Amino acid sequence: MRKLYFISFLLFLNISLIPYFIGGLHTLLAYAFALVFAIYVVVQAFVSEDSRFFSGVAVYLMLVVVPVVLAAVAYLESLNIFESILYGIIAFGFTLISWHYLFLVPLAVYYKRFEEIEATKPLLYRPLVSIIIPARNEEKVIGSTIKSLLEAEYEPKEIIVVDDGSTDKTFEIASMYQGPKVKVLRRELGGRGKARAVNFGLRFAKGDVIVVMDADTVLSRDAIKELVRKLQDPKVSAVAGNVMVRNKVNLLTKLQAIEYIAAFHLFRKGLSVLGAVPIVSGALGAFKREALESIGFFDADTLTEDFDVTVKSIKSGKVVQASSSAVAFTEAPETLRGLYKQRLRWYRGAYEVLFKHRDMFSLTGVTVLDSSLILINNLIMPIIDFLTIISIILAILRGLIWPLVIQIILFTTLQILVNLVALQLAGEEDTSLVVLPVFVLGYKQFHEILMLRCLFDVIFAKIRKKQFAWTFIERKGVEEDKAKALLHGTIASL
Amino acid sequence: MPKEKALIKLIELILNGSLVEIKPEFDQCKGSYSYCHGPLADVCEGLDDALAELHENGYIQREVYDNIASCPSCGSGMFLLKAKCPYCGSVKFSKEVVVEHLSCGYSGLAEEFIGQGGTLVCPKCRRELKDLGVDYVRVAEVYRCNVCKDVFSAPSFSYKCLMCGYEASIQELKPKEVYRYTVVRESLEKDPMVKSILGLVSTLTALEYKVKAPARVKGRSGIEYDFAMAVWKKDESAPIAVVDLVKDSMSDEKLLSFFAKSIDINAKAKILITYQRDPNLEEKGRKLGINVIDLGNENLVKKIAEIVLSFDYEKRGDLK
């Protein structure tokens, strides 16, 4: 914990230095005022225990008005027009990023403590859990996945494998396990989206709790139990599992591992406090059956059915949380090409969902915070980053090198510190610190540029009234022993 | 002693060159592979054990000819494949079609989509489905169990043995290797017992006796008995001598059985050849008038020939 507080201190020190270098004294003062206001809002939310405090005008002020005002201050404090525009953009982006973390870091730390207390409570709710595994050409992994689920600690459970028109031996291998606990269903017309396969399985599921997971996901022995523990709270309708990368074999997969940790331990944990986790990952998530029924199960009109179904849940006022203890290991793409294909689907799907649910960007309820954070992450940050890169190139060409170098260092340090907080929250010790600078300078930009590309893809697709086809990544499979060793290692470190 | 009988028959066939390869054939009545055909048709009982022993001793080589599932209860390979519900084991289930509404992605049994007036309506979004392939598709065919009401895409199968009726799951079925055997005549000829028998056959034949190894001899009671070897004077119906082999040890019952057989066929000389010397058996044999000779005896052939000749008054003294 001491390490965590030290990193958090450095993080806030860093945040305080940046405004001075962006604009000057006035920007710093304006920023300090805004910071006090932000802290007031967060503290009030905790004291009143009212998540609605995060919604409405307060959020609107923090996420729209304050960044614009700070950008204006930075703009006015600059010496010439070029610098004014440049620093205006940087100030706006920086304010948003700061707010983002100012919200999430304290909330995530609070949620860690909340989960520690929750873990001591007995599990009194024991509904039948239906675990749905959509699988298409997963012959390398399906057997070990079913086996790991059969060995999972929770009872009663039923495992439903939906073979989504595989052309390999997936159905035959899964059928070997068919019996009272394992249902194997085959969709002859497969490969047209995970949502369809999940709906198919859902139709024949008997459980009051539905767990959806990927065929290549290896669960910790107590993952199902931990998901159910969250659902023990009658208010909670859906739970996101803690998905981790299991094949940290090269730089790319190590970078993805950090990305997964940051996404879970900052974003999902932070928003769990508000009951508004925006994505229950398709790799592992649980839903109360009645909640899924009330929102009409999964829709098949986007590429990211997990994001879509979660947004639908939040919109209908359901509480969505995340569970750190429900650990799942997934196989991340090992090549840039594989990652590119995967993220093309994810980001296009994310924008499809944002378009589909554009009505959630209203200033009512907790959804406003969620929608704002989703917008910041998926839209504003990529645009700001892109503009910043262009501005920096132009600034260097105009000879403005040193102030920019300092700002880049501060921004990079900020990102590194934030991710260090996430790693600390995750209890992750074996991630090399050498990877972090690459993560914040290079990896993030790759994603942001890809996001912008996907944004335009979706806009053009909407204009042409076309839909995207599903893409698949090839599984390498992990030997059973290795998977087990991996599991035990991680459980021990938690 | 069916195994010994099969062994003797096998050795005879191998030595006279009529058996070079022993290939299994599928027996439709038994539902399994069998070697009991052709020259081995009359030694079915104990044949598998005899082949295993010959292989163990290196007289025949084997290679896998087939690998078949066999009944865990009786070893048969003939089954009736029975389809049943994988969850409750019921054999009562019916086929149903699963329909998917393409635009909203809802999947359900076809019956769920039937609305008022026989039109198809999606139960999730209440939109009417008009054209197959445009509005909706048949994504799968599933079976619905009439007992537990659960659905499955493929029934589970059990294997009912047609021989003993045992119903096994696929996991219970045992793989069984079926071999094809090739004779290694040279190693058989080097076997001391076989060598001795061959020596005896040639010596006694030279002395103008009729020799059969193995031999089936009818007794005065009308019962037929099997011996490793029987020796006749050319013009007599009752053998002058009978020989049997003792591989490990011989129980008193078996000794008496051999004695009784010899008496019934009226054999004069009764000879047992043992692999190793057994003074106890020699003593018991001596009291019953049975000659027990072990393979360690250097003059085994000569000694047996002398015994035979000692009962033949015409030829006594012929052996030098």
Short overview:
The complex is a heterodimer of chains A (494) and B (320). Chain A is an alpha/beta fold and 494 residues long.
Commentary on this structure:
The complex is a heterodimer of chains A (494) and B (320). Chain A has 494 residues and is an alpha/beta fold. Chain A has one domain: Spore Coat Polysaccharide Biosynthesis Protein SpsA, Chain A. Chain A is 61% helix and 11% strand. Chain A is built from 16 helices and 8 strands. Residues 478-494 of chain A have low confidence and may be disordered. In chain B, the strands form 7 sheets. In chain B, strands 15-18-19-20-21 form a 5-stranded mixed β-sheet, with helices on both faces. Chain B has 7 helices and 21 strands. In chain B, helix 1 (2-15) crosses helix 2 (47-56). In chain B, a hairpin with a 5-residue loop joins strand 16 and strand 17 (224-227). Chain B has helices at 2-15, 47-56, 185-189, 192-206, 252-264, 279-288, 300-310; strands at 21-22, 25-27, 32-34, 60-70, 79-84, 93-101, 107-109, 120-121, 128-129, 136-145, 151-152, 156-161, 167-169, 174-183, 210-212, 215-218, 224-227, 229-232, 241-246, 269-274, 290-294. By secondary structure, chain B is α+β, with helices and mostly antiparallel strands. Chain B is rod-shaped, with a radius of gyration of 34 Å. The A-B interface holds A 163, 171, 175, 178-180, 183-189, 193, 195-196, 199-200, 202-204, 296-301 and B 86-87, 98, 100, 102-109, 124-125, 137-142, 150-154, 156.
